[in-house]
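can u do me a favor
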């Protein structure tokens, strides 16, 4: 049960659940999409994706504004799906609000993978914190997407498990080969190129980004990713600031191979307080030096080990970018590879799967379920 469209950007849910699909039947139930009223609505759209996951999307008539109506339309759709599939062995939540749709389902095991502090995001439901506390108490397993989030959530669940952002190192290491052709749209963008990829939303400090571009008009800032929850008209427009839109995950190494550095200009606000950016190890695996604003889960461990430079202002950021582009590359890259050798999405999923297997065999849990 997820709040993220499967096709938006490839991130934590896709990395983990595509690996789960090697051994399980995985059904990914997205949040609904709204369409003009039609005789066949509401209904489910179902499709298999290349990763072996079945993606299920509730298609609903435009919301009528009545509280609870969206949930009332989805619940029978989920029930009709479960008539066919049977009760799930594992009910996996990415959003606590999905309990209003799936909370009546009694699986063998309930998992909450808390990848973000959703209550802090723009437009978050005022019920989010209440529903999250309910879910954290009833879930058999709670995972968190980063160290700072783990430290915050273990006050509610002392047995939560920390699984920070990880890496498909082989995929991004393609950028290091020197053999990937330059994307055609990059050929007219002069160097040095400072890059970003990811969702463009309220978590970015657009003013800091614009200030960096103004301070260094001789550098090109290349921004890749879909614009979500903010008005595209609010994006800063400067001659050396290039907004390319979203690109498929498979193509990202082609862009990284032709960047001189990466910039992560995250705003320091409630929405970023607990984030653990997946792009940090991805940039590093591509051999791209990185400068980031002081996000807690970037400072620790990446900043503290000197693998990522931390800068809190535009002036500090451009100074750090100049330094990382000028320093010797090989010694830094050797330390990067040593750190990355300890993490992978394969390892994260293997450890999660082991916890799931152990929980399913727990006699104490079986007694609780039958009581």
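np, heres the sequence
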């Amino acid at each position: 049960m997820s709040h993220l469209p499967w096709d938006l950007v490839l991130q934590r849910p896709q990395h983990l659940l595509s690996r789960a699909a090697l051994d399980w039947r995985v059904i990914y139930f997205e949040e609904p999409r709204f369409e003009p009223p039609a005789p066949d609505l509401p209904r489910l759209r179902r499709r298999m994706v290349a990763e072996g996951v079945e993606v299920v999307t509730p298609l609903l008539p435009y919301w009528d504004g009545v509280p609870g109506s969206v949930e009332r339309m989805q619940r029978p759709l989920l029930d009709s799906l479960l008539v066919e599939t049977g009760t799930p062995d594992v009910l996996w939540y990415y959003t606590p609000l999905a309990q209003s749709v799936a909370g009546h389902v009694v699986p063998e095991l309930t998992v909450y993978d808390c990848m973000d502090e959703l209550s802090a995001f723009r437009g978050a439901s005022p019920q989010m914190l209440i529903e999250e506390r309910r879910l954290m108490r009833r879930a058999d397993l709670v995972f968190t997407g980063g160290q700072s989030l783990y430290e915050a959530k273990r006050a509610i669940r002392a047995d939560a498990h920390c699984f920070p952002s990880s890496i498909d190192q082989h995929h991004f290491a393609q950028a290091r080969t020197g053999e990937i052709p330059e994307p055609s749209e990059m050929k007219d963008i002069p160097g040095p190129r400072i890059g970003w990829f990811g969702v463009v939303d309220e978590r970015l400090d657009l003013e800091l980004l614009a200030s960096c571009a103004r301070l260094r008009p001789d550098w090109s800032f290349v921004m890749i990713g879909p614009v979500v929850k903010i008005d595209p008209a609010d994006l800063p427009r400067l001659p050396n600031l290039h907004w390319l839109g979203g690109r498929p995950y498979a193509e990202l190494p082609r862009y990284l191979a032709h960047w001189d550095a990466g910039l992560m200009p995250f705003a320091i606000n409630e929405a970023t307080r607990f984030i653990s950016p997946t792009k940090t190890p991805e940039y590093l695996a591509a051999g791209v030096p990185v400068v980031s604003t002081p996000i807690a889960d970037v400072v620790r461990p990446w900043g503290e080990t000197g693998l990522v430079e931390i800068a809190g202002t535009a002036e500090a950021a451009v100074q750090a970018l100049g330094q990382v582009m000028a320093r010797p590359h090989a010694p830094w890259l050797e330390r990067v590879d040593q750190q990355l050798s300890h993490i992978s999405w394969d390892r994260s999923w293997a450890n999660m799967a082991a916890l799931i297997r152990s929980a399913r065999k727990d006699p104490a849990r079986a007694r609780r379920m039958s009581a």
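Confidence is low (pLDDT under 50) at residues 366-371. hope that helps!!
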